Amino acid sequence: MLTFKNYNIADWFSFYRIFASPFLLLLIWLDFRLIFTWLLLVSYSTDAIDGFLARKLKITSSRGSQLDSFGDQITLIVGLIGLYVFETNFIKTNLILIGIAFTPYIIQMVIAYIKYGKATAFHTYLAKFSAVMQSIFILCSLFFHPEYTLFYIMIGIGLLETFEEITLIFMYNNWASDVKGIYWALRDKRRFKKNSPSEKQ
Q1: What sign does the CA torsion over 54, 166, 161, 101 have?
Q2: Which three-class secondary structure state does DSSP give residue 21?
């Protein structure tokens, strides 16, 4: 990922989310809530665009999946920082519940790095749904105010998605990308194959 050679258009949309993150953090520091929220919306939109382009143009790759996942993670972190700064009271009030929700996610990340040496990029249907709910909640909270119904739904779906990711890690001895879910994993022949040298990079 350290060179720009042979990157495709879907990769560049993922790169946008990564490059935009420092500028979004600057907007938080400057207290430009509305501008930050609109640009965060743009970043979330590129997540849908790069996935669509990768499938439409048939340019999916393990590198692209990793790049997409990294862009998603850093955008989520920036969004949460913005939510904390602009809606501090809400975060402090629900800090215990947020901590309970994030603990399995941290455990999942640790297991993935121990087993694969990198983060997962399963991109399951449940993960995509969870990401959509996270973005809707964060954007609605920043444009208007935090809505508890959305908050609880987001937490519940996020926990289900994390437990599915942990299950998939134990199902796959080798790193794999673009797994739709546990049902599809049960029929996925990649679970029984060893990665090639190029796939491990």
Answers
A1: negative
A2: helix
Kindly tell me the sign of the dihedral angle through the C-alpha atoms of 134, 137, 142, 148.
negative
- What 8-state DSSP symbol labels residue 177? B
Radius of gyration of the chain (CA): 17
pLDDT score recorded for residue 195: 54
- Distances from the Cα of 130 to the Cαs of 26, 48, 126, 133, 199, in angstroms? 27, 13, 6, 5, 27
3-state secondary structure of 71: helix
* 123-172 confidence digits (pLDDT tens): 899 998 998 999 999 999 999 999 999 999 999 999 999 999 999 999 99
List the Cα angle 31/33/35 in 5-degree steps. 110
Alpha carbon 68 to its chain centroid, in Å, reads: 8
